[in-house]
Amino acid sequence: MAFDIPAQPLGDALVRFGLQAGVSVGAGDLSRCGPTSRAVAGRYRRAQALGRLLAGSRCEARRVDARAFTVVPRPRTTASATAPGAGAPVPTDVVLDLTVTATRRPSLLSRTPASLSVVSGQSLIGSRIDSLQDLAPEFAGVTVTNLGPGRNKVFVRGLSDGAFTGRTQSTVGLYLDELPITYNTPDPDLRLVDIERVEVLRGPQGPLYGVGSMGGIVRVVTRKPDLSRFEGRAAIGGALTQSGAPSSSLDLMLNAPMISGRLAIRGVAYNEIVGGYVEDVVLGVKDANRTRRTGGRLAASGVLAPRWEATLGVVRQTLRSDDSQYAQGGGGPLQRNTRVREPHENDFTQAYASVDGETGIGRLRVSAAYLRHAFDARYDASGGLFTFGSLARTGVFDQANLVRQTVVEAVLTSPSGPRLQWLAGAFVSRTTEYLHLDISATDGSPDVGLYREDRDDRRGEVAIYGEVSYALTPRLNLMVGARAFNASLSTDSLRAQQAITRTFAGTLETQDISPKVVMSWQATPTKLFYLQAAQGYRGAGFNTTGRVNQQFSAEKTGNQPNRRYRPDTLWSYEAGAKASFADRRLELRAAAFYTDWRDVQSDQFLPSGLPYTANVGRAANIGLEGEAAVRVDDALNLRFSFLVNGPQLKQRDPTYPARPNASLPAVPRYSASLVADWTREVTPGLRAVLYGRVAYVGDSILTFQEQAASQMGDYVTARLAAGLETPRWRLTAYVENPANALGDTFAFGDPFTQGRVRQSTPLRPRTAGLTIAVAF
Q1: Mind giving me the DSSP string for 272-328?
Q2: Which of 125, 137, 338, 674 is the most exposed place for a label (fewest CB within 10 A)?
Q3: What is the pLDDT of residues 17-30, one digit of tens each?
Q4: What single DSSP character describes residue 86?
């Protein structure tokens, strides 16, 4: 890699090294090292450059992992530092600044003019968190619905298009490293094993990430193959749930250099069984909602040339749940009276390749991926069979979704310059979606097949985008970005009901430009202020689902569903500030925002229980979010986050029956969390670690109608963990929901009884677990 770091105060030099190397650097008291650094100019490996920077000082660098170093005083006697594995102690040094890449180029977290939050992979290990749903409370303004594993939607900053999953594209882009992992399917709920960090970038990201990022993006960054050392890790865990079934997990990781310094592979495999806790009373099944999650990743990285690297990889996960996890029927809070079991599956596969290197004008990264994402679910349709002309008592609604997507993207970024920086990219995607819906009677009556639909959607997008950043003064910077795109859609549908069929075929094409403007002022090296305006968008589509006599209206001419639902667009305006005090012992971030969202698309249900997409009107949200990190002493760290906002439907579409000025569904107006972690050396080589989190989720509604049955939220969750660790092993005990609270996290389970019968999804009952991890 190329480095250009002049001799300067050591703390500033380490921050600059972290930015140029794309790594994070931690350090304790730098006064023990010496006042200044050595200059580093030229091409070096990261460890070599950091060694030259510290040459002549009284400190040395130790590698924490492939993307992190810690700076410590040199030992009086020469001893080889043990490279930490999964069971290694988490360094307690202050992280001088995190290097993040959610903005498509390496940047320092504290100096990025955007609402950006990061949780490190080491924090996930210490808190025993392995899913995005468990992690969400630690991010201000991130909400995850709770329909079940592999079935959830993610919202950021109160921008909810509704609680149900249908044809609309997600409002939040989910990314694994550089590439998207969802389109309009739910979060695949990938297990967070061997993760480097999780980044959340709030606000519309249309210019950089395109369609489906109007609320922001959530990016999971995996650990890359390490070209220089062999390492492995194994972890086994078990847990007991009060009034539920036990759970277990097994995680494995292996990193192996094939050619030292030039080629390495890294593999991850896992298997998890999550015990159920909901009882199907009518069917006599206890602990019905058991889930099994199995998967892994395999990646190979190699050096093609002195300035070029390539990575190939594959990701695979299968998720099977025996039943859903909501309660209904007036029994206990963990009981349900459905007549059939409601299993669901979520299968995710991604193969990808990337090439990254330096050209004569900047750094080029070319990525390509093929994604296959299948999602199947069953609902109890017994309550809606009469609508389809059946007198049967028991029936099912089966839904099968299959998405295949091919993506190719190229991004060219300029070298770091004193005043001008730029970024240019090109994006091409091809997506095919297959949907199969089937309603059948299951009690032996002759009318077994009552309704069926087979639908194919073929989507294409071609886009070019770019950003230009210019320093108007040494402290004042202006960034302008835009994305020009062409999106196409072709839809074919065949519906059949009682020997009657209906067909539909339609095409759409859209061209537009999505802009973004950011003005930032670096008042001091530790204080940043910025203003931002950005646009997000989603394309139009067709409604085809409904009984064969279902009438579809032309746009704005009759009651919905309309045959064609309109695109929706969102403008977001944000003012933010970041500051640190007392040598970064106190770090603060705050942002005030206002969003104007027109022609909001929302997935809803017809009276028959079948899904459709509506334009519900014009929404707005005004809010304030904040985060604070406090290093109390060398052992204790505190993190606090909050969101106060007012998501509201300001103008109802005259053809949609929403309550005037209704809140946006599934997102609370108030949320907050407090996280504490404490680490102390008990004896040489042995550390004790404590973690605690308490979070409040305010009340919210399920639908735009704000029925009494749709109220949910207004509960407190907690999580505790304690561990002992050495450089080779880690023992962690944890308790989830220690107070055994029963708050309603999601007031939905079955579209055929929703609104007529109270449905609720309780928190998982008190669960205590133990995990043992060994590194080798």
Answers
A1: EEE----EETTTTBSS---EEEEEEEEEEEEEEETTEEEEEEEEEEEEEESS---EE
A2: 674
A3: 876 776 777 665 56
A4: T
